[in-house]
Amino acid sequence: MKKFFITTAIDYANGRPHIGHAYEKILADVIARNARLSGKDVYFMTGLDEHGQKVEQSAARRGIPPKVLCDEVADDFKTLCGTLGVSYDYYIRTTDEYHRSFVQKCLQKLFDSGEIYKAEYTGLYSLNAERFVQEKDKVNGAWPADYGQVTEITETNYFFRLKKHQRWLIDYIGAHPDFIYPKFRAKQVIEFLKEPINDLCISRPKERLSWGIELPFDKEYVTYVWFDALLNYISGVNFGDKKLADYWPADYHIIGKDILVPAHSVYWPIMLHVLDYELPRTFLTHGWWLSSGEKMSKSSGNVVNPLDYIEEFGPEPFRYYLMREMSVGQDCDFNHDRFVSRYVTDLGNDLGNLLSRVVNMLHRYCDGIIPSLDVTNPAILELRELWDGTGRSVLADYGDLAFNSALGRLFSFIAFINKFIEMNAPWRLAKSADSGARTQLEVVLAAASESIRLAALLLAPVMPVTASKILVALGADPEVSWSKLDFGPHLANKTAVENVILFPRKEANL
Ligand code: MSP
Fold first, then answer.
1. How far, in Å, from the CA of 492 to the mean position of ligand 1?
2. pLDDT at 374
3. Are residues 152 and 54 part of one domain?
4. Contact present, 457 and 340 (Cβ < 8 Å)
């Protein structure tokens, strides 16, 4: 059976991991974890984009071969994925031999069928963007800063016929409403396609750039880095024992908004169409993390280093914050104070203290043993009803990629468990001489424990380690499954672990 295949963009090897990279991988990971829990056979691929001028230049600046630089950067990114709990199945590197040979096979096929041709071209070339640009790309009469130096050059190169497939692409997008997510991004692509598009220059003369995949039909040239990089989505699942049909078409290509047009929404669909592959199901296009409304950039010194936050607060609060704050598809400001407040209020007070209070009360009043639960007891009706609604809506939100809404609902439920405890005051019931007080105390503690267990399960795609810690603290099986989401006496007679601290208190000193 075909796997549920999800990919992220492959990161440029000329920089170090920043929040954008971390976010994209966490987003993909949350989708992957939810899909696995929903019974899908998931294959999650991420990786590194290693060729091109910028990588060559960065390596030259450090006086090391480009491959050595790429090996270092790959280690950095893989370490970050490990720290963040990103459960990828395969890490593709575009310097891998199977990738090189696949790219060359595709180029040869396109050349033989006349889809790639040689021509002399005079045009404006952006060193930073590593491509020919046009006057119409100017913003308010000036080249965008990230184009760097733009100069006119005349060069003989190889071109891929894009123009002749423009109509086909417009029709395809029109006929496939799920192809680009969110929908407003599809409109941007259609807008872009209203103007005639140029054929794509897919070669770079070796005298200018040697760090790339050599054209199989002309040894004087290497392949344009985007043409090479996009093919990773197929080369990574099409070698050795892997059968492409088990993976392709991809279910989600997860990418940032800056690389949708034209690379993913124009070059890639046309490449696939001409090479005779099916198109991916959905480009999931996320927004950008900003700093006080501005793009993060090294020059403005406002780049958020994920490692600072991970070191100070731990990887899972970082995952929680990113998923809780950003609505998938929209931009979002990274705000330090909000981060601290989410850590202190949601995680520390609402969730962490709730668990430690409940396990401590279980030890104080019940010898650490969770009492059996009569789910028909009227005292827990409201809690149970709230759970039923929460469980259903959170799963629906996960399926709809509405992670911020899912976490909002889940933490409202957690807030209600706190309220339930305050209202029923187990500490008073424990002292009460009333007949029935003891039973009531047991019902309250059992229902609170059960509610925390359920909340932990739903939290698992976003905070897998925390979820397991909570389950262990309640004496439950740490394995998460969506089949365990019913409110029942699952924890009866289990032993709770005393003194659990999920989120240590901090003097935030970042
Ligand atoms: N190498 C290309 C992708 C090739 S895919 C065949 C590339 N690499 S990148 O390192 O610049 O970016 C990797 C991903 O990180 C992209 O999807 C990009 O949109 C995303 N982000 C980079 N900065 C970002 C933010 N500030 N916020 C969110 N994501 C952003 O592009």
1. 48
2. 94
3. yes
4. no
